[in-house]
Known about the structure:
The chain is an alpha/beta fold.
Amino acid sequence: MAKQPIITVKNLVKNYGDFAAVKGISFEVYEGEIFGLLGPNGAGKTTTLEVIETLREKTSGEITVDGFNIETDKNSIKQRIGVQLQAAGYYPNLNLSELIDLFSGLYGIDKTPMEMLEKVALTDKAKAKYKDLSGGQKQRFSIATTLINNPRIIFLDEPTTGLDPQARRNLWDLIREIRDQGTTVVITTHYMDEAEVLCDRVAFVDGGHIIGIDTPDHFIDQLVASGFERKKEVKLANLEDVFINLTGKEWREG
Length: 254
Ligand code: ATP
């Protein structure tokens, strides 16, 4: 994989009044990778992402996204990224097809709703309203909306929270496909199994600092090399494997 940085963050600081949420962090995201920001609640992950997404002002530091400086080129950055909206961003009375038309119009981009819904396996829900979708369908739809402007990078904040095991695995496949088609993906998650199988590299954020950044494999190998051992012998399968084995791999929500 080419190790060309597409996002560069240097000494980012973000204060909310007297409270320092992000305390001088630096990292790079490489073009074409799935990059995970991991860490406890309140660590500063969402704040960091929102500054990079141009949704929040930084207190200090330097950020470059796809070659554009966040101070001088906010609009160029906005055109090159896709950000998942929170549920409240979707007009409740419009169906999926109408919502895609609306977003395409806002971006000034000519995309047919079916072309976008096809990417996330939702063509059969074109006439359904967002509020009537299942959790997994809502997540897939919101990922489709991030792709409308052919972004270079998409940002996904906890995209699999609350999903069943099939929906979660299918969403991982979708995120990998998006990466394989050339879009860089930045993701936050609290599920370490997810980060381990999905992310090419991860950064651990704690108390507003980055305390480690590497591939999941390297992190695990280093921990093992340091003498760490799990207390309990690990079984060859876990309860999630049982779940998938009993209920199948296919999407469950029609
Ligand atoms: P989580 O895993 O819970 O989503 P996070 O790592 O994304 O957490 P942030 O949402 O970035 O963390 O929050 C970092 C810190 O900044 C928290 O202590 C939070 O209370 C504080 N914070 C976030 N937004 C604001 C705000 N608008 N005003 C004041 N403080 C805020």
